[in-house]
User: What shape does this take?
Amino acid sequence: MGARKKISAEKRKEALKTMYFAKLQNVPTSPRKMRLVADMIRGMEVNRALGVLKFSSKEAAARVEKLLRSAIANWEQKNERKAESGELFVTQIFVDGGATLKRMRPAPQGRGYRIRKRSNHVTLFVGAKSNNEDQN
Assistant: This one.
């Protein structure tokens, strides 16, 4: 690794130490379905977001709820105190496409239709309100 690349990688690692996030990788649902759930809670206060996810009928909401609880626990672990209501917000959440499994399904007249079984990666950042305003 070159010197410039190493320095920028070290800066990136230091920046991540001050951020509070959780990642969920290789979720076996399509990114499009997961983005619908992510858009529901973007920018919300965490207790309200947990309520929205708990009562959502979407299958992906249960996975994002668990991820949000993990991000809150990470924040509490790094700050060595419990989060108070109204203190934490979902500052960022994004969904990236993961690996796609390609399968074939038999089709009429000897053909085969391709099936793409998609997966995704979700990254969720939490922070205080002051951090939320600084990033925007």
